[in-house]
Amino acid sequence: MIIAALASAPGKAGISVIRLSGNNTVNIVKEYLSIEEKLQDVEYNKLYLTEFINEGESIDQITVAFFKEGNSYTGEESAEIFCHGSPIIVRKILEAFYLEKGIREAEPGEFTQKRFMNGKMDLVQAEAVIDLINSESDAAFISSREQLEGGLSEELKKINAMLIELMSILELELDFAEEDLDFTPNEEIIRKIDLAVEVINKFVVGYKKGRIYRDGIKVALVGEVNVGKSSLMNAFLKSDRVIVTDIAGTTRDIIEEKIEVNGYLLRIFDTAGIRETQDIIENEGISRSRKLIEEADIILHILDSTNPSEEEFLGNIIKVYNKCDLEDVIIDENSVKISCKTGVGVEELKHQIVKKVIDEKLSYQPYYISNIRHFNILKETVSQLEQAKLSIQEGQNNEVVIVDMRQALDTLGEITGETTSMDIINNIFGNFCIGK
Ligand SMILES: Nc1nc2c(ncn2[C@@H]2O[C@H](COP(=O)(O)OP(=O)(O)OP(=O)(O)O)[C@@H](O)[C@H]2O)c(=O)[nH]1
Ligand SMILES: [Mg+2]
Q1: Within a domain: residue 99?
Q2: Between the CA of residue 249 and those of 3, 38, 121, 296, what are the distances in Å?
Q3: Which of 9, 147, 158, 297 has its CA 20 to 30 A from that of 107?
Q4: CATH number at residue 89
Q5: Same structural domain, 28 and 65
Q6: Residue 225: which domain range?
């Protein structure tokens, strides 16, 4: 079965790309083309300029490249057609193929799933493909690129090797159990387990940073009414995005906008000002603000310099004294002075946010995992290793410890795809777009 789909974004464009993959692709595609070469003379990895002809009608002048089995994106025999970026042309070409028996439309992510199934990348790398496509900042680009290039996979292989070594020690002892030889003292095995746990935990902890690399820093603008939260949102965006008035309670809904600062994505949330009110709509807004405060990576507590409130919020907070054009307040090191009216301090504040959440000097590390699936699997692996350790401490025999260890190894293998169930694999690729 050959699969085919539009691989570039749908809609009008300079060029659209149609991808085909499966046994006999070259043969079938060539039937629609005006290229002279006999089939056996068709060269791979070369661009041909040719007409695409269906039932005598020339549909477009295209370029096409053929890829040999084992040397293509999917690992199968493939072709990529570059036509003019017209939805009509794309439809006509795809329809010509779909009417052909033995060709069907590719499922979402199916090209990449084939690449995974054909052993050209592991699951972690396949997941990085979707992250790379979705990346909205340099940080997201860097982390998904690293993961796609196999940086994380390499680290996971090292952890896997540590666990395999432990397994082999335990199994060796089991084999010679009757001879009553104690090869490796229990303390030594426990030490090795602890070491593995320590390494894995580095990744578990790294998730917080990894998520920020991939998804950005969640910044909540909170404070009393009229302090200038919406004005700050607009100042950050350098546009009149949200409504600003001198009427208390202007903002009710939470409004999210994104900016990039030093390569990091900041997801800024403007919220309803917090106060006692009988207004049902405003109260709903206020309870949403309070919820957001719990989820944010950083809270900008905005205060009106002419009348700063006493209320304190919990969390990772920068106190922002706005309207410093009206009144110059004395601030401590955890606070900043700005004026949304004059722009004073606004740019610096952007950089302070990044500095407070991420140590800017630190560059990306492979243990900054960014995928919740990986995070959960690693946590589970740790708890299974702790179980193995407990079994040793309880004096259980090696068979029991080996079962615990085997479980930890199987769990770890779910990240890269070695032991992942087909349901989960299908689910992962189902989240891709068609054509990828
Ligand atoms: N002088 C001066 N006025 C400002 C400054 N920032 C905001 N204001 C004014 O303060 C008033 C309230 O601003 P908003 O941005 O709507 O305040 P808010 O915190 O979003 O208010 P709510 O949405 O009602 O909670 C408006 O009249 C703004 O023009 C500033 O730096 N200096
Ligand atoms: Mg507002």
Answers
A1: yes
A2: 55, 74, 53, 22
A3: 147
A4: 3.30.1360.120
A5: yes
A6: 216-357
Output the CA 256–ligand 1 centroid distance in Å.
18
Q: What's residue 174's pLDDT?
A: 74
Alpha-carbon torsion (56, 59, 61, 67), positive or negative? negative
Tell me the pTM.
0.88
Q: Residue 50: CB within 6 Å of ligand 1?
A: no
The ligand that comes nearest to the alpha carbon of residue 322 is 1
Exposure on the CB side of residue 271, measured as CA atoms within 13 A = 29
Q: How far is the CA of 339 from the centre of ligand 1 (A)?
A: 10
Task: Establish whether residue 337 lines the binding site of ligand 1, counting it when its CB lies within 6 angstroms of any ligand atom.
Answer: no
- Total number of domains in the chain: 3
Q: What is the pLDDT of residue 178?
A: 65
**In-domain check, residue 140:** yes
Cα of 214 from ligand 2 centre, angstroms: 28
Report how far apart the first and last C-alpha atoms of the chain are (Å, whole number): 17
Query: Percentage of the chain surpassing pLDDT 70?
Result: 97
Measure the CA–CA gap between 307 and 171, rounded to whole angstroms: 71
- Pinpoint the alpha helices (H) of 121-185: 123-134, 138-148, 151-175
Helix or strand run (H / E) with residue 372: helix 372-393
Q: Ligand 1, atom 11: nearest CA belongs to which residue?
A: 246
Minimum-distance ligand to the CA of 234? 1
Ligand 1 centroid to 252 CA: how many Å? 14
Pocket mutation for ligand 1, best pick of 227, 231, 339 (most atoms within 8 Å of C-beta): 231
Closest-CA residue, ligand 1 atom 2, reads 323
On the question of pLDDT at 362 being above 90, the answer is no
| Pair 150, 205 in one domain | yes
Is residue 117 included in any domain, yes or no?
no
Q: Please tell me whether residues 222 and 337 are part of one structural domain.
A: yes
For residues 226 and 258, membership in a common domain is answered with yes
**CA triplet 34, 39, 44: central angle to 5 degrees?**
90
Domain annotation covers residue 203: yes
Q: Which ligand is nearest to the CA of 246?
A: 1
Ligand 1: centre distance to CA 297 (Å): 24
For residue 194, pLDDT over 70 is answered with yes
Same domain, 56 and 87: yes
